[in-house]
Amino acid sequence: VQLVESGGGSVQAGGSLRLSCAASGYTYSTSRMGWFRQAPGKEREGVAAIWVRDGRPDYVDSVKGRFTISRDSAKNTLYLQMNSLKPEDTAMYYCAAGRAVADWTRANEYDSWGQGTQVTVS
Fold it and tell me: Could you tell me what percentage of the chain is helix, strand and coil, using 3-state DSSP and rounding each to the nearest 5?
């Protein structure tokens, strides 16, 4: 599975961005997709994940109520709508896909990764 993120940029605190992740290749075996982020000097952190089949989401506590993960199966595209952005949301955001993801917060459970898109909140 190949993943390509887009939609990052620079916004002021309180603003919004929508990230997209286009998936291609053999996507049929993907059961779960997620968004991770990594700020300089910090570990990669799971932000949100979604079950591809039924759309059930999971979120890290720090983004609940502000971020929404969704997918368009017909377009093989994953989204992350980010509202009420804060400076601490600044990071490189990565899309990930996995065939068997038990713990969505663990990066090593995902099989495929995108190249990342930068989000900067000032």
Answer: 5, 50, 45
Whether the CB-CB separation of 91 and 39 falls below 8 Å is answered with yes
- Assign 11 to helix, strand or coil: strand
Distance, CA of 93 to CA of 85 (rounded, Å): 14
Q: Give the list of residues 6+ apart from residue 64 with CB closer than 8 angstroms, or none.
A: none
Question: Using one digit for the tens of pLDDT, what is the confidence trace for 16-62?
Answer: 999 999 998 877 788 999 999 999 999 999 999 999 989 899 999 99
Q: Which of 63, 67, 82 is nearest to 16 (CA)?
A: 82
CB neighbour list of residue 58: distance below 8 Å, 6 or more residues apart: 48, 49, 50, 104
Q: How far apart are alpha carbons 85 and 88 in whole angstroms? A: 8
Residue 21 DSSP one-character state? E
Q: Give dist(CA 5, CA 12) in Å, integer.
A: 21
Enumerate the β-bridge partners of residue 66.
none
